[in-house]
Design a protein that fits this description.
Elements lengths: L7 H10 L14 H7 L6 H11 L14 H10 L8 H17 L6 H8 L3 H7 L3 H45 L10 H20 L1
Length: 207
């Protein structure tokens, strides 16, 4: 196991000798990356995070026994930074570096990842959402929900077009052949049908 305060040089030597050290866990199920991210505010942390992720990017998705991703531990550690401390700016910069390195490997956009992302302190969260990989993840989650709504709207508009067109034809025939009172306009349903048809044409161009 890599100690959280180990130097970058020591970690590189250890990984050269025992490459599986990146995924080795302690009794809490925490891998070296958990410790590095859990100490994100320290000066040595970003160097360790960089080395561990270079060696094995998949550890970004590894959870401990409490289902914590490394990002969750970073969030907890970053929240402990006191705004009143003299070195708060340096500690925040260290945490930001660790965050950027972690997000650069594009972790899986799982529910646990998104929850960990939301638990980041406000300033780190605002920075995270400006990173391209995170923007792609969030956009992907949005577009997964949007097509369902579009399909529902397509089906509804199609039903409306058919129904209103049928009514409009029926009204036209009644008025044309003086079957009923002409005071009811045959254009009422045609207008609705036209709106539905316009939507279908517009959506076909978008596809």
């Amino acid at each position: 196991m890599v100690h959280s305060g180990a130097s970058a040089e020591v970690v590189r030597i250890l990984l050269d000798v025992v490459p599986v050290s990146t995924t080795a866990v302690d009794f809490n199920g925490r891998a070296p990356l958990h410790f590095a991210m859990g100490n994100s505010k320290e000066d040595f942390a970003h160097s360790l995070v960089e080395i561990l992720l270079e060696e094995n990017p998949s550890v970004a998705n590894q959870k401990d026994n409490e289902d914590n991703l490394p990002l969750q531990l970073l969030a907890k550690d970053a929240r402990q930074i006191s705004e009143n401390s003299e070195d708060s700016i340096i500690k925040k910069k260290n945490a930001v570096k660790c965050l950027e390195l972690y997000l650069a490997v594009v972790p899986e956009a799982s529910a646990d990842f998104l929850n960990a992302l939301k638990n980041l302190p406000k300033d780190l969260l605002e920075h995270a959402v400006t990173i391209q990989s995170v923007q792609k993840m969030l956009n992907g989650k949005i577009t997964q929900k949007f097509p369902t709504f579009v399909l529902f709207l397509d089906g509804f508009s199609l039903i409306m077009v058919i129904t209103c067109f049928s009514y409009a034809v029926d009204e036209y025939l009644k008025v044309r052949y003086n079957v009923e009172d002409k005071t009811r306009s045959e254009f009422d349903h045609l207008i609705v049908a036209l709106c539905g048809g316009t939507y279908k044409v517009a959506s076909s161009f978008q596809l």
